[in-house]
Amino acid sequence: MRIRTVHVLLVLALAIVRAQPPEPILPGRGLAQHPFLYCGEWQGRSLEQQVMYLVRDGKVAWSYTNTRRGELGDCTMLSNGNIVFSRQFGASEITPDKKIVWDYDGPQGTEIHTAYPMGMDKVLIMQNGDPAKLLFIRKATNQVEKEIVLPTRDPHSVHGQFRRARPTQAGTFLAAHMDLGKVVEYSAEGKEIWSVPAPSAWSAVRLKNGNTLIGGNQVGYVREVNPKGETVWEIGKNDLPGIPLFTVQEVSRLANGNTLINNWSGGLAPELVQTGVQLIEVTPDKKVVWALKDWKTLGPASATQLLDEPGVPEKGELQR
């Protein structure tokens, strides 16, 4: 009798499994589409054991686990193979053999979610805090060569102030004011010279065509605006059939004109986090040519550098 009961249960379980709709086949070649560097905030909903990945030939070729507490939100591989990255409460540079060759720890009560190389000798840091500061640090001495205080909605609520800041080729700087819902361009001296409304702005990068590409955090959008602030291209939360945007973090423009979207899903309920497609590459006419969903290999998507893109990263030649 017991054997028959077990048999019936197994048959029912198999029927349930067979009744589940198959996972849709996504465009592109999965992990083999591009070689890329990848990091993401809040893996496993924990600030410990955050992992950064280097993917080549369709598999993880290198990884680094941050044993210090903090999210990995920004990462860039330099032309010498070293990687500059933010770790929420500081920033570092690591070699391919996992030796830390530069470290910066933010003061108590601050957070850092931008660490971007300015040549081989300097790093741009966006330091959330009271006050929030854009910092230009010389790595050899850890000397702050310039600091620019930026406005915030609430100086005491540091986590939600900023995620990304980026230099432009004109020598100015773009800051995504996540808490103020706008993107602002500042002069080298810190004077506001241009701004555009952008709800929950997570990232902003000045494109080679003079426009600005913006990623919207909780709202879930990608938007390109011209110098007049007019939207000239946009993808909304539900504009890509079968691939909803959740929390858009880094967005970058590729040399072929396509746009790469980091579709972070850490803000979803735990049981829904891994339903999200992590990376999406779309053409100018919004056709998805690559959609990566591989939660067995990678964690959430905050920042991705495609390593087959032309340009020298530390010279700001990538549109990310």
What does the model show?
- This protein is mainly β and 320 residues long.
- The chain contains 1 helix and 24 strands.
- The protein has one helix at 2-19, and strands at residues 36-39, 50-56, 59-66, 75-77, 83-86, 90-94, 100-105, 111-118, 122-128, 132-138, 143-150, 162-167, 173-177, 182-186, 192-197, 201-206, 212-216, 221-225, 231-235, 247-253, 259-264, 279-282, 288-292, 303-306.
- The protein has a 4-stranded antiparallel β-sheet, with no helix packed on it. Strands 4-5-6-7 form a 4-stranded antiparallel β-sheet, with no helix packed on it.
- A hairpin with a 5-residue loop joins strand 16 and strand 17 (212-216).
- The longest helix is centred in the N-terminal third of the chain and has 18 residues, at 2-19.
- The protein starts with a helix and ends in a 14-residue tail after the last strand.
- The relative contact order is 0.13.
- Mean pLDDT is 92; it is low at 13-20.
